[in-house]
Design goal:
heterodimer; A: 294 residues; alpha/beta; Rossmann fold; 2 domains; six-stranded mixed sheet; four-stranded antiparallel sheet; 11 helices; 10 strands; 38% helix; disordered N terminus; B: 297 residues; mainly alpha; two-stranded antiparallel ribbon; 12 helices; 2 strands; 77% helix; 3% strand; globular
Chain lengths: 294, 297
């Protein structure tokens, strides 16, 4: 049963084919009366990576906590994997949530125990849970951490274990809140490539909440820009990152590649192809240099 | 006049004893805490987990059931036995067990500090009113031999409890504890006990990082504690509030991975061996024997 208290300015949309998560007119108000989400509409389709961009306090984490039913919508509609989430619905474990604070997520005495926690809760036998955990750790290249104590892991390693913890539950969707925010460049790249491989190799749909625009530029198929609890723009990375007013309104910077390209364009060498990733910019520059060579 | 002089001498004696106690406290606790590091006096979650999960001593091989059944036996002993000699023997036995578990003895001494400090701070007020043969007296204040014995007895009882609890926690895998607690306690209580056990570590972790942060800015010196006691009190209260907040995050993370109020346990916990049963039987017999005869000491 859907919640019919939506505001008149926002209308419920039809569910589309292959739509794994469907959010309409979502509202969330903190107990002190502060509104953290207002009329939020969101969609996630099979096999895509969607990035939710926004500054600190924009409402990203609150939205993310709704996506597996951990927080239930009081106003608006949330449909996850075809199941409408109401106040009575339990948490949908097919949507794995990787929290921003891995210290809180990884709490068992050993890494193996922690990764087994989800499968055991799903009713796996001990042996099946162990196999699922080991397989998940291997898939993300963290098999060497199996018998380590989480307490002594680095932040990057803890993040990997947290991802393995949700991966062991065979999720259809992984939602990661600020997955690289407090990591060094090496671990940041490692987490990024793990998430990307999960999409390409395992066809797992991924939602990432971040204010790291370079990460968003490299990895996103679609982007939602959120500011003051509202979705202010949605589109491809190219649509979003060349829209200065949207980024300014959300207090976000352009990705490095876009910033460099714009600086180059000031010299009068604009191209029809607008790069978003560093890789695209390098290709563009190689082309320009190639033409300039005698 | 002579009675005035005698009361002044008594007063000086009491004052000297108090100064000696304060200095001992400063020397033993303060010195350790400021020079070696306050954080070392808080049990280390990682280390406890390391020993419990990967320890290979003979005590690790004992059935978890045996160790857990012995816990109430130990608690019974420290509750009912009042004879200091018997208590010292039990403490010696428990420390030997700790040593046989191949656990770090030096850290045990550090970890003893806070419970001793806690019990001493309470019993220090009690010992002045215990009737018995006076060692020192000034007006209504009497320090008796029995008062000193009470102080030492309570400290020894604390050390027995702390040491055996550490042996149990550091030689038994968490999953075994989970399994046993869920078997012996009814449903909500078992979950509360298990989660309290985990969250206690989170609280300690938060407290530890806060202590380090305060020390790095020159805080937590004894003189500072005297001057800014209220401030430190509020900081420690904040540590507990933060750990509560962290517990909320952990609960969310657990729920999102399918936790619905019952920790799933899939471990087989080995039953006590014949030797284990015999040991428990002997320990229970000895406890009853000690209690019965202890009353006549």
């Amino acid at each position: 049963m859907s919640n019919d208290k939506q505001l008149s300015a926002c209308e419920f949309r039809e569910l589309e084919e292959d739509e794994l998560i469907h959010v309409d007119c979502l509202e969330h108000v903190y107990p002190d009366g502060t509104s953290s989400l207002h009329n939020v509409c969101f969609s996630l389709f099979k096999g895509e990576i969607v990035v939710i961009c926004g500054a600190n306090g924009a409402g990203k984490s609150t939205l993310v906590e709704h996506l597996n039913g951990l927080v239930k919508p009081k106003v608006g509609r949330l449909v996850v994997l075809g199941q409408e989430v109401t106040q009575k619905t339990g948490v949908i474990t097919e949507v794995g949530l990787v929290f921003q604070d891995s210290d809180s997520q990884v709490f068992a005495p050993t890494v193996l125990d922690d990764v087994m926690f989800g499968p055991l809760n799903k009713g796996f036998t001990a042996d099946a849970a162990r196999l699922a955990a080991i397989s998940a750790l291997e898939r993300i290249g963290a098999a060497h951490l199996t018998n380590r104590i989480p307490y002594y892991l680095s932040r990057g390693e803890k993040r990997l274990v947290a991802i393995a913890g949700v991966l062991a539950m065979n999720p259809e969707v992984i939602v990661a809140d600020e997955p690289t925010s407090d990591l060094d460049p090496f671990h940041s790249r490692q987490i990024e490539s793990v998430l990307f491989e999960l999409k390409t190799d395992s066809r797992i749909s991924i939602v990432i909440a971040t204010h790291d625009m370079d990460l968003a530029a490299r990895i996103a198929d679609r982007i939602y820009v959120i500011a003051e609890g509202q979705v202010i723009a949605t589109g491809t990375p190219r649509d979003i990152f060349y829209n200065k007013s949207v980024l300014a309104r959300a207090n976000l910077n352009e990705p490095t590649a876009v910033r460099l390209y714009k600086r180059l364009c000031q010299g009068g060498s604009a191209s029809d192809f607008k790069p978003v990733k560093e890789h695209d910019l390098v290709k563009l520059l190689e082309g320009v240099i190639g033409k300039a060579e005698p | 006049m002579s009675s005035d002089i005698s009361s002044l001498e008594d007063f000086m004696r009491v004052a000297l004893i108090i100064v000696a106690c304060v200095n001992a406290y400063r020397g033993c606790l303060g010195g350790l805490m400021t020079n070696i590091g306050f954080e070392k006096h808080l049990p280390d979650l990682g280390l406890i987990t390391h020993y419990s999960e990967f320890g290979k001593s003979p005590v690790h091989e004992i059935s978890p059931w045996t160790k857990i059944i012995l816990l109430p036996v130990v608690v019974f002993n420290i509750t009912v036995i009042i004879d200091l000699r018997l208590l010292l023997m039990i403490l010696f036995a428990v420390v030997c067990l700790y040593w046989a578990s191949e656990l770090p003895i030096v850290l045990l001494l550090y970890w003893w500090t806070l419970p001793v400090f806690f019990v001493a701070s309470i019993t220090f007020l009690l010992i002045w009113s215990v009737p018995g043969s006076d060692l020192v007296s000034y007006g209504p204040i009497h320090l008796t031999l029995e008062g000193v014995a009470l102080f030492v007895t309570l400290i020894v009882k604390t050390l027995i409890g702390v040491t055996y609890s550490l042996v149990l926690l550091m030689t038994t895998k968490y999953n075994y504890l989970t399994h046993i607690i869920s078997k012996i306690l009814p449903y909500p209580l078992s979950q509360i006990a298990l989660l309290t056990y985990r969250f206690l570590f989170l609280t300690l972790e938060g407290l530890k990082s806060m202590v380090i942060a305060m020390k790095s800015r020159g805080g937590l010196k004894l003189s500072g504690i005297r001057k800014h006691g209220k401030f430190y009190g509020s900081v420690f209260a904040l540590a507990f509030i933060r750990s509560f907040d962290k517990a909320d995050h952990v609960a969310k993370a657990m729920q999102s991975r399918g936790y619905q109020g019952k920790l799933a346990s899939s471990y087989y916990v080995p039953r006590p061996s014949a030797g284990g049963y015999a040991f428990i039987f002997v320990a229970v017999l000895l406890s009853i024997f000690s209690y019965s005869f202890g009353r006549y000491f």
